[in-house]
Specification:
- One of its GO terms (cellular component) is membrane.
- Its cofactor is L-ascorbate.
- It comes from Piprites chloris.
- This is OGFD3 protein.
- The chain is about 20% helix and about 30% strand.
- The strands form four sheets. Strands 2-3-13-9-16-8-5 form a seven-stranded antiparallel beta sheet, with helices on one face.
- The chain is globular.
- The protein has one domain (about 5-245): q2cbj1_9rhob like domain (Jelly Rolls, Sandwich).
- By secondary structure, it is α+β, with helices and mostly antiparallel strands.
């Protein structure tokens, strides 16, 4: 794996850590949106946007939703926007599949917390990258993930391959991850790794920690395989193109 440098240890409590890196050419192939499309690229980590207590409340939303399904392999997702939920080797639409029972699982407060957290993350990204928060739009997919050491059964379970979000998803300009569990306490492995030419830079998950970065190939990354325990996180991503924007989920 080459030399590995830890960008954020689990035991750190980081107000704001930001590393600027040169932008890749990925953005040149897409429409540019003044005041939003990255001109300054990099990656940041903050433990000061979301509290651990809020992270625990959000994890409970994820646990309740994912308890309705779950992948046969080690990686399960729940997308509150589209309703996509891993079930066995496939996905179902949570809202269609469970209908009115959904009100027994989620509350209006859950969705209000989700919105509030999304807004705070969006504002911090805008602030750090020097762009206007109102020129960024939430985009899909935005989802909870639950990873454990179960062997992968389909390609959807293979979360550990290196990838570039802008290439994989197209609409992404800024990606964020909110961690909902603790590295070495709740799970082993499962660190987030930026793959740079000179060395790897890792982020060790910690409940309430937000990791965010520009989505181009300047931030090629992967997640290590989880060896034991369960890792929860939520991916929340933003686009500069209003045509790719989505609204907050509603119950």
């Amino acid at each position: 794996d080459g030399v590995t440098e830890v960008l954020a240890h689990r035991g750190d409590s980081l107000r704001d850590k930001f590393v600027e890196i040169p932008c890749s050419e990925d953005y040149d192939g897409h429409r540019r949106f003044e005041g939003c499309t990255p001109r300054r690229c990099g990656r940041g980590v903050s433990d000061a946007i979301i509290t651990r207590e809020e992270a625990e409340r959000i994890r409970r939303i994820a646990e309740r939703g994912l308890s309705l399904g779950g992948s046969d392999g080690g990686a399960s997702i729940l997308d509150l926007h589209s309703g996509a939920l891993s079930l066995g080797k496939h996905f179902v639409n949570l809202y269609r599949y469970f209908g009115d029972k959904i009100h027994d699982i989620f509350t209006e407060e859950d969705f209000a917390l989700y919105r509030d957290v999304r807004q705070r993350i969006q504002q911090r990204i805008a602030q750090v990258f020097g762009i206007s928060s109102s020129s960024m739009y939430l985009t899909k997919p935005t989802f909870f993930s639950r990873m454990n050491s179960t062997e992968a059964k389909t390609t959807h379970d293979e979360y550990w391959h290196p990838h570039v979000d802008k290439v994989t998803y197209g609409s992404f300009d800024y990606t964020s991850l909110l961690y909902l569990s603790d590295y070495t306490q709740d799970f082993g492995g499962g660190r987030f790794v930026f793959l740079d030419a000179d060395s790897n830079k890792t982020v060790e998950p910690r409940a309430g920690r937000v990791s965010f970065f520009t989505s181009g190939s300047e931030n090629l990354h992967r997640v290590e395989k989880v060896h034991w325990g369960t890792r929860f996180a939520i991916t929340i991503s933003f686009t500069c193109n209003p045509e790719h924007g989505i609204g907050d989920p509603v119950l």
